Model the fold of this input.
Amino acid sequence: MAAPTTAVPAHDAAPGGTATGSRSRPGRWIDDWRPEDPAFWAGGGRRVARRNLALSVFSEFLGFCVWAVWSIVVPQLPAAGFTFTTDQLFWLIAVPSLVGATLRIPYTLAVPVFGGRNWTMVSATLLLIPTLALAFVVQRPETSFGVMLFVAALAGFGGGNFASSMANISFFFPEKEKGAALGWNAAGGNIGTAAVQLAVPLVITAGAGVALERAGLMFVPFIVLAVLLAWRFMDNLSAARSDPRQFAVAVREPHTWIISFLYIGTFGSFIGFSGAFPTLLAGQFPDVTLSLAFMGALVGSVARPLGGILADRVGGAVVTVTCYAVMIVGAVGAITALGGHSFVLFFSSFMLLFVATGVGNGSVYRMIPAAFRVAGGARDLAATAKAAAGCIGIAGAVGAFGGFLIPRGFALSTSMTGSIVAALWVFVGAYVVMAVVTWAVYARRGSRMAAARV
Done:
């Protein structure tokens, strides 16, 4: 299939006589991209960038759907004839997050190597592997746990999509619009978790009986559509360059690891709770329909932009400390609900947790450039920006490991105590530590970080 090579209509003449937005090579490569140039941006650059953003959101949305699909499939496995233990079920929920987190940095580096359009096509095509494999194994209750775990791990391809999508879009937009573009890109992806938890129960029960294989097959036409749309309408930027040194600079900066630790508490909690929530509902309140499970991921996704907005006004550290406090309240509320077997309190407490994690996701990411500006001191702006960019990539990868730790925490708690209460108390302790660290490093009165409203 030959790649389209139709030139973008010229609006302004670029240096050297090349038309703005023209492609000098086949494969939809744009060799002249100047988003910081107002004339270039107004004369067609914005339109091209927004087109790529829209298609990137669609592909990333599907990636999150595939990444999260096991969270809603696992509660259905016993009814389909599988006899896995509680610990094994939580492994199936946790391992996609582990793989997805591990893939985030190589996926980020793939965009400048292969091109944003090209890598979007590749990463979207890879989603066919976990979806078709899922459709095959869920029809065979005799499948061993090891094989099921391997197939669940394949869903981690969807987690890597977030990193490459964010990296690709960051090259298209000028600095003044980059935050909004990345915010839309992130929110569009995160909502995929809620969408899959809403849609899968409806699709697999349509008609007579339960057809669990549809949980994988339902995504195949959309994945094919995403690949075709990327091939036909997305672009590669020659200006997109990878600098592995930004990761080396960030690794040596203590704030990278402090912020990564804090991001485990926000984004890691969001992914972990999103993955575990349907199984928790099925286990703790079996008489309640799983159709409510999607609400957690939905409110967490929608709340994310609010975190950035509030952080811009009062400082990211202040918002983040408040989020940890709210998460503590939510976790204690869930513990209380389990003691009284109150579904209303349990559900409400988890909605509070999801809102706080979503807001915290936005506020922690807002802290990164501000913290590195203060920490950089006399260091030149380019070096500071490079370190902050590396921190964003590392924190995104490390934070996603929380999606593995939380389901495993619930599994160990259930195996050792017969209840998830012990795990919730551990999470409460972790949030207390994270709140104290955030305050001590970034919000303590009289500190340089607090004065800069990091």
In short: The CA atoms of residues 265 and 431 lie 7 Å apart.
